[in-house]
Amino acid sequence: MRIQILGFWLQFLLLLRLSIAKVPAIIVFGDSSVDAGNNNFIPTIARSNFLPYGRDFSGGRATGRFCNGRIATDFISEAFGLPPYVPAYLDPAFNISNFALGVTFASAGTGYDNATSSVLGVIPLWKEMEYYKEYVTRLRAHQGDWNTMLTITKALYVVSIGTNDFLENYYAFPMRRLQYNVEAYQDFLIRIARNFIVDLHALGARKISLGGIPPMGCMPLERAQNVPTRDCVESYNMVAMKFNSKLSHLVSQLNDQVPGLKLVFSNPYNKFLDLIRNPTAYGFAVSDRACCATGTFEMGYTCNVQNPLTCPNATQYVFWDAFHPTEHTYKVVADGIVGTILRKFM
């Protein structure tokens, strides 16, 4: 009898929290920009569960985030009064009680295009959606139908994906270039993005942040290959701007066409570019190379703890490795998005 009464009160308190909270959970899909360690549990070389990754994370732990510390979705979760870390769905250290407040299905190296995920053998976007469906079933068993409905419909969904489709697929291998010119390939990706958002809405999502892609021509890896100047690859930046414009148009279309959808476009491009061009204005010192190792090409296993060239203070750097930002950068970008685009959900 006491157990039944306790169970009733726990369910009542959960219902009360869900009813009051504007955003009771953060649910994340995407690539390495928002992967908190899912790739640790699949057979791929696209991993970062070793030092110096995570050296500035709580406890100095390498969680599988491609960063020295926390990533943008961790800061977004904290800003909404939720836990300061969004856990990876495949990480057995967490359970459905943790995931009820936030979860990421993201996989480093993936993209909208299934062919992109095949490059490094990571989780394709369609599989992330399958994990989400499994998550909803587990959530329903954990907190009941009504509370699950409240969580799913009131949660903030964050989608951050797309850069790998260009840098790790379209420009790296000939297959898609033989099928599409770059604008046609962008349109191909936009159709996938559209279907993903529509399907997510059909499963209950209402508040969705669709992320744009950064000035990918300014990543240290791309600059290192742009010899002799080592300047940003402006042609790649133009592609990013064009793709972001198409994403922005998609957001407007879907808000008009899909009843009840509250879709926003979270575009990091301008803030990121300003960080790169004016690093000292944000407290950075270096933006043309990364902190890890030589800062020009190292990421993943080539960014390892044995390299003596890794910088001692990552807060001075915009980039952590040749492809990914530092925790400091993620916080600046996340704070900007929360203070503008995502404010309407607070």
Give an overview of the whole structure.
The chain is α/β, with parallel strands linked by helices and 346 residues long. 45% of the residues lie in helices and 9% in strands. It is built from twelve helices and seven strands. The chain has helices at residues 2-20, 72-79, 96-99, 114-120, 125-154, 163-170, 174-179, 182-202, 220-225, 234-257, 269-277, 327-339; strands at residues 26-30, 102-104, 156-160, 207-211, 262-266, 286-290, 317-319. The protein has a five-stranded parallel sheet, sandwiched between helices. A two-stranded parallel ribbon has the order 6-7. The two termini are 39 Å apart. The mean pLDDT is 95.
Give me the strand/helix succession. Answer: HEHHEHHEHHHEHHEHEEH
Helix count, DSSP H or I runs of 4 or more residues: 12
**Protein structure class:** alpha/beta
**Outline:** globular
Distance between the termini: 39 Å
- The pLDDT mean sits at 95
Low-confidence stretches: none
Largest sheet: spatial strand order: 2-1-3-4-5
Give Rg in angstroms: 20 Å
Work out the number of β strands.
7
- Fraction of residues in H or I helices: 40-55%
Estimate the strand proportion: 5-15%
Q: What composes the largest sheet?
A: 5 strands, parallel
